[in-house]
Amino acid sequence: MAENAEVTQSPSPSNDNSAPADHPSSTTAHAQAAHHHGHEGTFVRPSDLLRPKTTSRPSAPTQPDRPIDRDQRAGLKAIRDFLRIRNCYDVLPLSFRLIELDVGLTVKESLNIMVQCGIVSAPLWDSSTSTYAGLLTVNDYLNVVRYYNLHADKLKDVDKLLLSDLKDVEKFLDVKPPETVSASPEAILFDALRKQLISRARRIPLVSYDSDTQRTMVTSVITQYRILKFIAMNVKETDMLRKSLAMIKLGTYGNIVRCTLDTTVLDVIDEMVMKNISSVPVVTTEGILLNVFEAVDVIEILKTGDYGNLTWTIGRALSARSPNHPGIYCCSLDDGLDTIFETIKRSRVHRLMIVDDNNYLKGVLSLSDILHYLLVEGQEETDQT
Ligand code: ATP
User: Fold this and answer.
1) Helix, strand, coil percentages in the chain from 3-state DSSP, rounded to 5
2) pTM greater than 0.85 (yes/no)
3) Cβ of 224 below 6 Å from ligand 1
4) Torsional class of 53: left (φ above 0), alpha (ψ -120 to 50), beta (otherwise)
5) CA-CA distance, 95 to 353, in Å (whole number)?
6) Bias regions of kind Polar residues — which residues (predicted)?
7) CA–CA distance from 276 to each of 127, 248, 257, 289, 314 (Å)?
8) 7-83+230-383: which CATH topology?
């Protein structure tokens, strides 16, 4: 059983089923009375040709606007309006630390620093040019693992691999270099987030330009969790987002990449790299959720420098986790973003596993799924207001 799992299965407070169920808008024929007076009916009048196309589009479904729909739109609009009047600086706490790593460090040294400081990503600094050199993330370590798996003969030199060599590893593996979206700390949060979501970057480094020294400087890095927590703490209208995940079709449900306790860590890493995902649920053969293996777990496994540990089974890797591991978060298809925001407010959530009452895995809800809905998909909902 998922010992660490905190199950947030609160029933959706608002299953308002009183209104007719959604149905795809039928092909509403745009009925036009045709008046045929003698030979006139055979002519197409210019005004017909010039009529904007939109007038002949099927009209919007005429179902009554339910309170739950109105509230959802109002909640989304409040969040967007809030993000439009805040800049990236606002998301940062009053005091924070920033750990930058020089590209001249070895990958092994960087792993030790990550573990000691309890971080999972860091901006890179190129001291030869005094410039920001991109963001080091756990994906870089996954690439290193794959590289040495293909080149066991080179493993003897693994301790000499520098952070500046990671570009060559990427090139060799033919993987896309990570997205290097950055934003100015003064950028409007809404704009910075849209840019990040479209680029599929998971973090936004805040990079400012110092006109005196003519150099760029990293102020901090904003994570998806930090943004969602900022929204949860400041926008009370998040409690209006009562539509369930099932209703708004939020999350991934088909083709979920999953593993069992007997799958090897190496196989799971391959899946994560190929599918560009950061976690793989661990399930029983019946599909009952037991735990989640996360990309960041790889950092702990690699810190010993023993790449042989990657042949461990997932079961063994999970039992080697620190006892302080925060556990996994679950929700049900009946939960709405209102309850999920409550969880985000209280706890450092990385993602939620969507399960049914018997803990059967139904789907995965990532933080990027939520942000995407708030900023991109939910657009249609707010446009109707
Ligand atoms: P991160 O967790 O690194 O901050 P993220 O929030 O984008 O990034 P990912 O795990 O990378 O989370 O998810 C990317 C997309 O893949 C999301 O749409 C998510 O629903 C989907 N996804 C996540 N895990 C799985 C999985 N195991 N199988 C299938 N799809 C998944």
Assistant:
1) 45, 20, 40
2) no
3) yes
4) alpha
5) 32
6) 53-62
7) 31, 24, 11, 21, 19
8) CBS-domain (3.10.580)
Half-sphere exposure of 195 (CA within 13 A, CB side): 16
**369 CB near ligand 1 (under 6 Å):** yes
Pocket test for ligand 1, best of 277, 340, 349 (most atoms within 8 A of CB): 277
With the most atoms of ligand 1 within 8 angstroms of its CB, the residue from 204, 270, 364 to mutate is: 364
Q: Are 80 and 382 in contact (CB under 8 A)?
A: yes
Establish whether residue 121 lines the binding site of ligand 1, counting it when its CB lies within 6 angstroms of any ligand atom.
no
- The model's confidence at residue 266, banded by pLDDT at 50, 70 and 90, is very high
- Cα–Cα distance measured from residue 220 to residue 198, given in angstroms and rounded to the nearest whole number: 21
> How does pLDDT run across 6-20, given as a tens digit for each residue?
333 333 333 333 333
- Answer CATH for 86-226 from 3.40.50.920, 3.90.550.10, 3.10.580.10, 3.30.930.10: 3.10.580.10
The whole-angstrom separation of Cα 360 and Cα 40 is 66
pLDDT in tens, 318-348: 998 888 888 899 999 999 999 999 999 999 9
CA of 275 relative to ligand 1 center, distance in Å: 9
Answer whether 7-83+230-383 and 86-226 agree in fold.
yes
